[in-house]
Amino acid sequence: MATRETGNLFAKLTPPTPDERFETLLQRDGLTLERIVSHGQATPDGEWYDQPRAEWVVLLKGAAGLRFEDEVEIRQLRPGDHVLIPAHARHRVEWTSESEPTVWLALHVPESQN
Amino acid sequence: MATRETGNLFAKLTPPTPDERFETLLQRDGLTLERIVSHGQATPDGEWYDQPRAEWVVLLKGAAGLRFEDEVEIRQLRPGDHVLIPAHARHRVEWTSESEPTVWLALHVPESQN
After folding, report:
1. Which residues of A touch B (CB under 8 A)?
2. What's residue B4's pLDDT?
3. Residues of A in contact with B70 (CB under 8 A)
């Protein structure tokens, strides 16, 4: 077979690691696609993500709580749930499951030039 | 809550439809992200996909057989399996599960300008 870039998003999920694990799956022309594996981690208290690019993110396994600074409620994410986070929309991960790995797929893209 | 683009990749998978279902999740600057739901469909006999953009595709649920024209064996895809299909790499879907819906996430991107 020809060599092609392949992998499995649910491979190598254990053992839990102290930090979240980020793996770049694809990177080109300002776009980054990455797998993130969490296991109980959360964004540190009082910290917010404020990203220069938009992020389309889907939770594929596990569970997590996502909060936007301009929202009161924490969004409870279950497998399959996806959210488009606009550039500079301040947000944080309030919690991730401690009983199993949480797998995210995140696509970072430049804000549209159109 | 603020209105944000959200959804669930595993929603509305049934009933089976005669044709595969394509839904665009994100589109900007030459990039297209789509969900594809198959239920027993395959690429018609003798036909090949020959796409001008590279496609990163992951099978999230179900099962499928993917074949590249330059390969003899059919790649058996299971949940989590992802493949990067270069632009113009001729390929076809030999089969998809008939017993359950198959859910794909496909990211079409321009070939790198770098």
Report:
1. 1-2, 4-11, 25-26, 28-29, 31, 33, 56, 58, 60, 68, 70-73, 78-86, 105, 107, 109-110, 112-114
2. 80
3. 2
Q: Phi-psi bin for B12: left (phi > 0), alpha (psi -120 to 50), beta?
A: left
Average pLDDT along chain B: 94
SS3 of A23-65: EEEEEECCEEEEEEEECCCCCCCCCCECCCCEEEEEEEECCEE
Residues of chain B contacting A8 with CB distance shorter than 8 Å? 78, 80-82
pLDDT interval class at B48 (50, 70, 90): very high
| Percent composition of chain B: helix, strand, coil (DSSP 3-state, to 5) | 0, 50, 50
Whether the CB-CB separation of A57 and A82 falls below 8 Å is answered with yes
Predicted complex ipTM: 0.92
H or E segment and range at residue B30: none
* Single pTM value for the model: 0.93
Q: With cut-offs at 50, 70 and 90, classify the pLDDT of residue A73.
A: very high
- Among B3, B60, B111, pick the best mutation site for testing chain A contact (most A Cβ within 10 A): B60
According to DSSP, the residues that pair with A109 across neighbouring strands are A54
Question: Rounded to a whole number, what is the distance in Å from the CA of B62 to chain A's nearest CA?
Answer: 14
| Token couple for B81 | 């399996």
Using 50, 70 and 90 to split pLDDT, how confident is the model at B111? confident
Q: Do A8 and B114 touch (CB under 8 A)?
A: no
